[in-house]
Specification:
Blueprint lengths: L8 H5 L34 E7 L5 H13 L6 E7 L4 H13 L4 E4 L8 H9 L4 E5 L10 E4 L2 H19 L5 E6 L5 H17 L2 E7 L4 H14 L6 E4 L2 H13 L11 E6 L2 H8 L5 E4 L5 H12 L7 E3 L4 E3 L6 E5 L5 E8 L3 H4 L3
Parallel strand pairs: 1-2, 1-3, 3-4, 4-5, 5-11, 6-7, 6-8, 8-9, 9-10, 12-14
Antiparallel strand pairs: 10-12, 13-14
Helix pairs in contact: 2-10, 5-6, 7-8
Bound molecules: beta-D-galactofuranose.
Amino acid sequence: MKKRIFAGLLTAIMAASLVACGGSGSAPAAGGDDSSGGADGKDSGEAIVVGFAQVGHESDWRNASTNSVKDAFSKDKGYDLQFVDCDNDSAKQIEAVRQFIQDDVDYIVIDPIVSTGWDTVLTECDDAGIPVIVIDRTIEDSKKYISWVGSEFMNEGLASGAWLKAYAEAKGIKDLNILVIEGSNGSSAQIGRTDGFKKYADEEGWTILDSQDGDFTQDGGQKVMESYCKSYAGKFNVVVCQNDNEAFGAMDAMKAAGVSYGVDKDVILISFDACKAGLEYVQSGDINADFMCYPLQGEYCAKIIDQLEKGEEVDKQTFMQEPWYVAEDILKDITYTNNAGEEVTEELVQVTDAASQASY
Ligand code: GZL
């Protein structure tokens, strides 16, 4: 298997450039200096071998992400995809990456379960001359990857806080007593959504009664909500679930406990991901707001590999565009300050036909 990138060169060509989808700014191409590009390239007809270490299979979002990568790296498109479902196990994910190095794949794609503990194995990838592309979640303790495609999770958290502030004001709800069901602890999605929302809670004086890990699963959401319904009966009027599958479980638990949720009910219900089933609940008024997290990143990843194969420059970061979906039309748009300190106005999308409005 030909190696396209000289060992250690990746470190030399890292350049952080912030890119919104389709933006400009980029790191020079791997496989040569930033003038020539110069990837070795593969003999024509040989499949490009891509090792993909996926988080697991915990949610509708995850399944959409997996299918998107499998579609992008199919055999008929000239790829040999080595797929490993790491079952939400960080040690297994590191092991999978080491196996890809041993198998001498051409590229490694990682969706990191957690955001730290990566520098050692990414150095091993770099030393082996195998370019690493990170998708979805972020790696915080190493920059030894050539490109990242995903979401600004802090902005997702800020979005949910900005929306709740405007919604409560529009509805004349003064005291917000909030329960949060977090995503998998240590994932950048959980960290960003938690910190972004908490920024608003602190600024607005909202009370967060509790915030526990639901692991991004329906079962996790149900179990945490069952416990909340016992511990905080009659004391809460907002539930924030950090993904739709947790929200589905939380709805089951609240229904069983006789707690109503949704538009003009006991509890305002907020969710993230905006998968089709989630938007159906927004349309029915059971979920008040659902903040999109876009999972179909396979094509972006394939474009990066195509550019590398041609010795072209690649963007260091690519952010997904992510609408805010709501059940009611009482608010048209919301202006907030995002994680980059920019004042941004976001149009709200009222869900009137989930089937046609859902991206996945
Ligand atoms: C976020 C992604 C999260 C989703 C969950 O980008 O990593 O993991 O929000 C998924 O649904 O399980």
